[in-house]
Design brief:
Strand 4, helix 8 and strand 5 form a beta-alpha-beta unit. By secondary structure, this protein is mostly helical. The protein has 13 helices and 5 strands. The strands form 2 sheets. Strands 1-2-3 form a 3-stranded parallel sheet. It has a two-stranded parallel ribbon with strand order 4-5. Helix 10 crosses helix 12. The mean pLDDT is 90. The chain folds into 2 domains: 216 residues, Rossmann fold, CATH 3.40.50.620; 80 residues, Tyrosyl-Transfer RNA Synthetase.
């Protein structure tokens, strides 16, 4: 049997290059060879401050981005997390076997507490348990996410091991849950345009969205920090210049990369030229996506029917898992 893949993206607005290269391209690489389920994880979205009036629109934006990026409903299933209630049921059951202290020690929880000191809620602490339920509800084995999600995947493996140990299968039956591993993609760390960290929808000025036109991409790149470019030497490992060269590596051809690497080392680099060529390369990558997206936008009934059918299949699969879990836990 094919290995099962699960991954999801929060409904916090349109996807950016980091989402595309770090997650969606990984999904595209998997859908031809694996049994895949990809989700809009809207329940995760509400653990931080958000606007309820735009949430449904944000969900639809992600669905359109998924389809335009090339996810094929004939090859994979697409779901909206909140429309498959078994996610939250399984998460609650997992919460009864996992220690609070372990969740409090996770670096992502500490980061979010610092980012939203007046919005520290139980859902934020609970986030990795719900993520575990998302993956294990479908018995996912591969998860295409960035390296920053590895601590959460370790929680998933720990919960899978603990459940399998506490509620073992009888006879020759296989373990209830697999221990999923991360599927690495080439663009798992797409750098921020701001010069530090990675591209993020929550940091204004750090990202390029998949629907940006050429002029918008130019404008965003013009604001990216650089140095004087006159000293020459080796390209720095971090900062604005390093991030620009990382984007060149991801989007431009070898000839362009070689040219600007040479110019930087010689101290003759012209950042305006580099940013223009990079803008063109990024837009060239995004143009087919944007054309497909417009086609789906013009046919909302088709999109709705595709998602409804896919969610029905997801609900059936989810309920099969929950019947097994309830029985092993003595709830049926």
């Amino acid at each position: 049997m094919k290995k099962r893949v699960y991954s999801g993206i929060r409904a916090t607005g349109r996807l950016h290059l980091g989402n595309y290269l770090g997650a969606v391209k990984g999904m595209l690489a998997l859908q031809d060879s694996y049994d895949c389920i990809f989700s809009v994880v809207d329940l995760h979205t509400i653990t931080v401050p958000y606007d309820p009036s735009v949430l449904q629109g944000s969900i639809q934006e992600i669905v359109l981005d998924y389809l335009a990026a090339g996810l094929d409903p004939k090859k994979c299933l697409l779901e909206i997390q909140s429309q498959v209630p078994q996610h939250t049921e399984l998460a609650y059951l997992f919460s009864t076997i996992y220690p609070v202290s372990r969740l409090e020690d996770l670096p992502t929880y500490k980061e979010k507490k610092a980012q939203y000191p007046k919005y520290v809620n139980m859902g934020l602490l609970y986030y990795p348990v719900l993520m575990t339920a998302d993956i294990l509800l479908y018995k996912g084995e591969l998860v295409p996410v960035g390296i920053d999600q590895e601590p959460h995947l370790e929680v998933t493996r720990e919960i899978a091991r603990k459940f399998n140990s506490m509620y073992p299968s009888t006879g020759s039956g296989s373990l209830t849950f697999p221990e999923p591993v991360r599927f690495k993609t080439n663009g798992e760390h797409v750098p921020s345009l701001s010069g530090t960290g990675k591209m993020s929808k929550s940091v204004e000025g750090s990202y390029i969205t998949l629907t940006d036109d050429l002029e918008t991409i130019r404008k965003r790149l013009r604001a990216a920090p650089t140095d004087s470019g006159t000293k020459g030497g080796e390209i720095p490992k971090e900062g604005g210049v390093a991030n620009l060269f990382k984007l060149l590596e991801l989007f431009a051809d070898n000839k362009t990369n070689t040219k600007y690497t040479h110019d930087y080392r010689q101290g003759t680099i012209r950042y305006a030229d580099l940013k223009e060529e990079l803008s063109q390369a990024i837009y060239k990558e995004l143009a087919p996506f944007q054309a497909r997206r417009k086609e789906f936008e013009a046919n909302p009934k088709l999109v709705e029917s595709v998602i409804e059918e896919s969610i029905r299949e997801c609900q059936k699969m989810a309920e099969e898992t929950m019947k097994e879990v309830r029985k092993k836990m003595g709830l049926e």
